[in-house]
Amino acid sequence: MLMATAPFLGALMFLILSSPEVRLPAGDSVSTGQPGDAPAPAPSPVTAISGSLEQATVVAGQTADSIKHAAELYSQTGQRMSSIVQSARTQSQRPLMIYDRRIMMPLGSPSRTIQSDRLTAQLFPIKAQNFTAYALKIRLKDKDAMKLVIGGDKPGKAETTLAAVKRYDAVVGVNAGGFADDGNGRRYPLSTTVMGGKYVNGFEPSYKDLFFVGLSENGELIGGKYTSREQLDREQPKFGVSFVPVLMQDGIVQPIPPKWQISPARAPRTVVANYKDDQLLFIVADGYDESGSSGATLAEMQLLLSRFKAVDGYNLDGGGSSTLVFDGRVVNQPSDNRLRPVATNFLFFS
Asked: Which segment of the chain is annotated as a signal peptide (predicted)?
């Protein structure tokens, strides 16, 4: 509307500033057509300009009203759109919230929580008939909020989970895969290990009861037995480790090989699993030694995974390696009565 009236307003300003004088040629007159009538007087220039000013004032007022009305409509539309977007966002999150409440029911109330824009970490104490344990539920909001680290960042070196947490300034740490001692004080990650999308010591096909478990580039838990590097590459592993055995796949408990039912029967355990919405679940069970008389059996860990509605579950290194660090503090009771240096650890960052 302002653009449409700009030429008129410009002409009006010219008339006001120049104050033109209107003249008729000499001898010219305006006649009514009646004989003897006197010529009609010409309109005064001031009268013409006054009329134009009044008209311009009316137009300007109408323009201002139109602009004000348009601004009010724009504001109202913006408020409505914001309300619609917020409502849609809330509705889209509702199924996740309902599912989260459902999987929280068997876990109970968390004893501690870490909340940030990168993750939500919740710690739950577990009192079983034959052992005590801790469940750690993790929702990754940033796929880079979790990583795998090697002791001292070099194969062959080892460090405790607490040392890794402190060195990387992480908020949560859990021991990860198995390792092999070379007899000279060096500990190497067991079998296939991936860090930053690269194989640490090449690919080794899964054999016997070994499996690979880790996170994909999309932040999803991947795991199982892989007979070729191409098969694992299709999963786009970002990082992962190897150990034995697989406990659950697609919500179905897997048979435990006889060897791992008795070697040892009971022990401190560390297990990793996932939920349908890609949240992660770690369970760390306490035991006072590795003689087989304390801690949890693998069957009992499977029972917990089923009770907690996990989808896939994998046994990680246990015994004296089992360590859970939450908010800078070791919450379980390592069976060595001290923290064991291990080859790999999972770390989480807020």
From this structure: 1-19
